[in-house]
Sequence to fold (640 residues):
Amino acid sequence: MTKYIFTNIIGSFVFDKDFKVVDKIEFKNLEEYNDKLKIEEKLSEKHSPTLITKQLINKKNKEILRKILAQFKDQQNFSNFYKQNIIITAKQLKESVNEDNFIVQTINNIEEIDKVANTLTKRLREWYELHCPEFSRSIESHEKFTELILNKSKKDLLKEVNLDPDNSIGADLKDKDIIPMINLANGIHKLYDLKKKHTKYLDDLMEKYCKNIKTIAGTLIAAKLIEHAKSLRSLAKMPSSTVQIIGAEKALFRHLKTNARPPKHGLIINHPLVTKSRPKTRGRTARHLANKIALAAKVDYNKGEFIADKLMKKLEKELK
Amino acid sequence: MTKYIFTNIIGSFVFDKDFKVVDKIEFKNLEEYNDKLKIEEKLSEKHSPTLITKQLINKKNKEILRKILAQFKDQQNFSNFYKQNIIITAKQLKESVNEDNFIVQTINNIEEIDKVANTLTKRLREWYELHCPEFSRSIESHEKFTELILNKSKKDLLKEVNLDPDNSIGADLKDKDIIPMINLANGIHKLYDLKKKHTKYLDDLMEKYCKNIKTIAGTLIAAKLIEHAKSLRSLAKMPSSTVQIIGAEKALFRHLKTNARPPKHGLIINHPLVTKSRPKTRGRTARHLANKIALAAKVDYNKGEFIADKLMKKLEKELK
Fold:
């Protein structure tokens, strides 16, 4: 007599030829669900040799499948399905968190910190210029500016940049009016510090996770590439021509819509090899570099060996 | 015999009827320039009674003024003018820094810190949700969220919001991957701290500088009003109808250009009296409040007495 076996997330079921359940093992928890193959096997043995399994049902006859599925339509099953689904999804969610997520969060945060520190330093400059306008104009680096404000008095600052410490056109302020500026400088300094810690973390993370891309592209560019691609996996799947223009989407679409030239490089324009090559050869450099990065991504994703040093040597030869 | 006396920033000069310089006292430094009236007086006495002073020259005869000014056209005078002008402008700049500047810088910075802390906390939430998504959704306040992250473990956090500490769908992360989040939380916490310090500073500053507006409008709104007006002086000059809609410029111009309704309130919409009044009476409340603020600004600018308590009582009566 023909029987059918059918397994889904709530259990393994045996049906007779009239599609009545004649035997079943329900999964009480996630462990049992993960053992579903074994459990199905057990039931199969018990009811063999008249048993038709799910795979066979699917292929042989959709009508049978439809009738079996109809058996799961009652309310009790629904709530079982619902519960079990939640549990499985939660577990998948939990397990889906990986290095890609950390890299994306960290590199995004580093960029935000950069922006934020910029905004605040601009304010600090404007504010401090009430007190000492000459100094602000002599120091271009925001970070160095903040550092110096934090540690030196107005006179020392002016000496630092070789200006007359007794002849500032800035107002002589009381301490109580200078302290808020120092507090702000301190806050900005803490942000730069945070950025350094994040960069170190990212560095360590990528050293283990994707050493090849990291070595070729540099930590920050490699992280941005992964961030744009959303994961190492999808970066590894990209052709090198895509890697070359990641981050230049605007220029790419302008090219596709109008007659504008296609972009020669996206994110990798910040790579030292591209930066230092002459404008004319920049496109070529970007192409070769993207080629190596794409290759490195594939190796990293498949947990291959460290080949970045060889790739770099090859790249340098190609660029000569 | 007629002589003319003429004083400018480089000195005091006596001309004869042919407009030759017959006597002069040049100002060697800023102190002498500041004493210009006395010096002119001294020269006047020496050459009286035939002397005509600058004021009289101006009114009597423009031709004479033109001839005198022509005497200052040689190169030597130019460089004197230039030097003296620089010195005077620098001094005026130096002296122009006052409480208005501090208030504008501080309130702007407070708003920037708010924005920046918001951006960073959004990132912190997204990042921390990899680890513990349930918690982030249970705490609405960004500041409290950051504070708790900083001080408690995942399990304690879940207990804090009455959730099952053993059943999170977030990933169980290693310490090394949690530390960057804590570092970020720490950075944000420092920014909130900075904001508190700034607010305290602003409070003290305005207590002395403009206690009346501060009492009526509250520190932050009062500071924003001054910031929009650019100074206490210009705020004091504004009619109360302008004070009422400061900060609603967009709505005002929309009203002027189209047939849209005029704005009922600008910045002062955040004042507790306006916030808590019913929508229908909000315009009226704003009008009365703006009236008192405008009055308070005038009193503060003219260094008048503390009348804010009386104004507040009157306001409350009017609003009944």
Chain B touches chain A at residues 90, 93-97, 101-102, 105-106, 108-109, 112-113, 115-116, 119-120, 123, 126-127, 130-131, 169-173, 176-177, 179-180, 183-184, 186-187, 190-191, 194, 197-198, 201, 204 (CB under 8 Å). Chain B has a mean pLDDT of 90. Residues 3 and 16 of chain B are 5 Å apart (CA to CA). Residues 175-209 of chain B form the longest helix (35 residues).
